[in-house]
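Quick start: what a row looks like.
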Amino acid sequence: MKTAIYARVSTIGNGQSPEMQTRELREYCERRGWNVTEEYVDIGVSGTKDSRPELNKLMADARRRRFDAVVVWKFDRFARSVSHLLRALEEFKALGVQFVSLSEQVDTSTPMGKMVFTVVGAVAELERSLIVERVKAGLRNARAKGKRLGPPSLHLDVAKIGRLRAQGRSWRAIARIMECSAKSCRRAGQEHASDGLRLPVDKNPTSALAATS
């Protein structure tokens, strides 16, 4: 079986060495009769980083089917979080790539390893559901107390917007002056008009622009 090994150390020294990880990973693969065809080692890279050069390369090569299995020394050497680990494992599963974590003794090529992966995935799904339910409960509680949800209201000077619009300025130009989005300016102008108050119209917008320049 063509195998890739992945190792990571966040710092060099203080007893940390990628060689210790890679040596044990090679020995494990040798015992199983797996052929190590690729090695990926991130050195001096924190496990919390979203992007790691060698890990990114490993994932890209997995999509090219350059190996059949990935072996890591420990979960936290590979993934930055449980959700990251599960996403990677789901992708490996779709690609037909096995995953082994030496320290945790998880091997998705075995029935026991597949069971562990299923349990971990179920726990993660439960955690996501609980978070969603807590958020919904918080929103319901806030509404019951009469709290207004969403971003604070934006109070715009609609008369000023009307004057600027009458001068022939675009909604984007008005938005820059009012320090808001063009959409907010347009909505304020439309609400102003729907209240029966027409936006002022300058019969000679060119002269008005000149007067304000």
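That is the whole record. The beta strands are 2-9, 35-43, 69-72, 98-101, 106-107. The chain is about 55% helix and 15% strand.
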